[in-house]
Each structure stands twice: as structure tokens, then as C-alpha cells.
Design brief:
Layout: H1 2-22, E1 40-46, E2 49-58, E3 69-73, H2 84-92, E4 96-100, H3 117-130, E5 136-141, H4 143-154, E6 159-165, H5 182-190, H6 194-202, H7 214-223, H8 228-244, E7 258-263, H9 278-281, H10 287-297, E8 301-306, H11 313-316, H12 318-329
Parallel strand pairs: 3-4, 3-5, 5-6, 6-7, 7-8
Antiparallel strand pairs: 1-2, 2-4
Helix pairs in contact: 3-4, 5-8, 6-7
């Protein structure tokens, strides 16, 4: 009998951490989730209310004098923390790195307001002014690419260079995806499950690795929070922002040097599941073509295509992404 008990005890000891992990709960502002770098907060005003905008401001070693600033803008289903490898790389190369969590994302407040890329760009500009940064290279991934484009159009004097990493918004989703009301989008967000989140994230990569699971566990832990209805509603607002506020028609107005880094296996279309026809779905999100079209539309653009890489090069192929980024920064 004792021989049977010892293996059972050992199994139980190993099961406890797994159970605790699966029951982890994060609130709307991820108070119990630790970023790899210190997080600060800036108060921003919108619709007459004050909200907290979280950000990281990482300096290079003191041996680097007067460092150039690089701003990293996250995607819709992410937060500033997923830039951790890129932050570490850029700081090591002598750059100051500023990484905001946009209002409604990550550790920032989940404000029930009208979301617009113009307003998020203004908040980002206010952050740079607060940090006494007059000029910066602006890097945007996925939704952050739409925001980076809007920022560069609004503040060309601030944007020395623009980097778009597998940006969404390279086509007008209003012409592709059937319209959904805010209430419909909200109800869809309420139906999310950890399995569903993981399955969606798997479409971002050419093959899944355990390290990618961190970016699934964070939103999954929010599903179990009493705050989740608020998180879900804000997510619906920001989905509507992407759908209703295209930037694709304004790429020709960008005047600064630009770099497009495109993982060629990406087929992302925001709201793809709402397109009923499989044949229609396959027509869109064709990043090999979209990357070339966008590079042709931006007057001073360089295109770097990454074979065998999906939607998030800075996570799936960090060495290739960082090489392309650093070469562009040093030009």
C-alpha cells in the first residue's frame, strides 16, 4: 500500500502548480502580471475623464550617449510586454525604447469611450512630450501598424522613420467583412474561451512553440475575472475602430523613410470569420501581394520579405526581424 501512495503523492505535487496556473485570474489592468521592465503611468484625458496610460521607458547602458528613441506600438490582441526581446535587443544596441500600452490595452485603463487612431496617436504624442522626446523612430506591428501610420501622418516632424511589421489595414475591411454592430461584437467577445484564443493565436505562426503560450495565458486569465465584461466591451470598441478607420488610402502621403517587414506566410484579415464564403476568405490577407502593393504606395519605402514567417516576425523570427530593423535604423 505504501508503495502505491508515494507515486500518488508525487503526482499530486506536480499537479498543484498546473492547477494553480490554469486558475490564474488577471483583472482589467493586469495588476498581477509582471512585465520584464518597469512600468510607469501617464494620465491622459479623453471625453472629459482622466485615465492611466501604462508605458515602459528603457534606456541603453550609460556608455551610449544621446541615444536615439524607438517607439514600439503593439497589436490588437497583444500588449507592450510582447516586445520584450526587441526591447532588450534595441537597448543593447544603444537605443532608448519607449513602449506604451495604448488606452484600452495591457496595463492601461479600459476606458468606455469612442476609440480612434487619431486619439491614440495623440495620447502617444503626449507621452513623448511628457518624456521630453522630440523625435523618434516609430515601429508598429499589426494594429500598431495602423496606429503608427496615423501617428506619422499626424506628426511627421516627430517621426524620423517609420517601420511597419506585418501591419493590418493594408486593405479596406469595410469592403470585405460584413458589418457587425458594437453589441454584436461585444456578444462575440463574451463567448471567447481559452481554447478559442489559442486556436486563433496559432494562425499567427507557421508552427507553434510552447513559448508562444504566454500571450494566450494572459487574455485567458482575464476571462475568469469579474472585470471581463469591461475588457470585452473595450475590445469590441477597438475592433470597430479597425473596421471603420482605414489608413490604406493614405500611404502615399507618408514622407519619411519607411521599412515594411512582411512575414510571407501571414494571411490575417480582421473579422475573417464573418466572411461566409471560403472562396472569398482566400482572396484577402495575401501578405506577399499586400506587402508589395504597400511598399509601392509609400514614396520612400523599403520592403523586407521573410520566407516561412507568419504574422509576428519579432517573436517567430526575432534574429531576422532585428537584423532588418537595425540595418534600417543605421541608414
Amino acid at each position: 500500500m505504501k508503495r502505491l501512495l508515494y507515486p500518488l503523492l508525487i503526482l499530486l505535487l506536480f499537479e498543484i502548480p498546473a492547477t494553480a496556473q490554469s486558475q490564474r485570474v488577471y483583472n482589467a489592468t493586469l495588476s498581477d502580471y509582471a512585465y520584464r521592465y518597469p512600468v510607469n503611468y501617464l494620465e491622459v484625458e479623453q471625453e472629459g475623464q482622466q485615465y492611466k496610460m501604462a508605458y515602459m521607458d528603457v534606456s541603453p547602458p550609460a556608455t551610449f550617449k544621446n541615444p536615439q528613441t524607438v517607439v514600439l506600438l503593439h497589436g490588437k490582441n497583444f500588449l507592450g510586454a510582447y516586445w520584450q526581446q526587441t526591447i532588450n535587443f534595441l537597448a543593447g544596441q544603444g537605443y532608448r525604447v519607449v513602449v506604451p500600452d495604448q488606452l484600452g490595452f495591457g496595463k492601461s485603463d479600459k476606458a468606455e469611450v469612442h476609440y480612434s487612431f487619431h486619439q491614440l496617436a495623440q495620447h502617444t504624442r503626449n507621452l513623448l512630450e511628457h518624456l521630453k522626446i522630440n523625435q523618434a523612430v516609430v515601429v508598429g506591428h499589426s494594429m500598431g501598424g495602423m496606429l503608427a501610420t496615423r501617428f506619422a501622418l499626424m506628426y511627421p516632424e516627430t517621426t524620423t522613420k517609420l517601420v511597419l511589421e506585418n501591419p493590418i489595414g493594408l486593405e479596406d475591411y469595410r469592403r470585405i467583412v460584413p458589418y457587425k454592430s458594437l453589441e454584436e461584437l461585444y456578444q462575440e467577445e463574451l463567448k471567447r474561451t481559452e481554447t478559442g484564443i489559442r486556436d486563433y493565436h496559432k494562425t499567427y505562426y507557421t508552427s507553434w512553440k510552447p513559448a508562444y503560450d504566454e500571450w494566450v495565458r494572459i487574455p485567458a486569465a482575464q476571462l475568469r475575472s469579474p472585470d471581463y465584461p469591461l475588457v470585452a466591451r473595450v475590445s469590441a470598441y477597438t475592433y470597430a475602430m479597425i473596421y471603420e478607420q482605414p489608413v490604406v488610402y493614405e500611404f502615399s502621403d507618408l514622407k519619411m523613410p519607411a521599412l515594411l517587414v512582411i512575414g510571407l506566410e501571414d494571411r490575417t484579415v480582421v473579422g475573417k470569420a464573418y466572411i461566409k464564403s471560403e472562396e472569398e476568405r482566400k482572396k484577402y490577407g495575401q501578405y506577399p501581394l499586400l506587402g508589395q502593393q504597400t511598399a509601392g504606395a509609400i514614396p520612400n519605402a523599403k520592403l523586407v520579405e521573410l520566407t516561412g514567417v507568419g504574422h509576428i516576425p519579432h517573436i517567430e523570427a526575432p534574429d531576422q526581424f532585428h537584423k532588418a530593423l537595425l540595418e534600417f535604423l543605421k541608414q
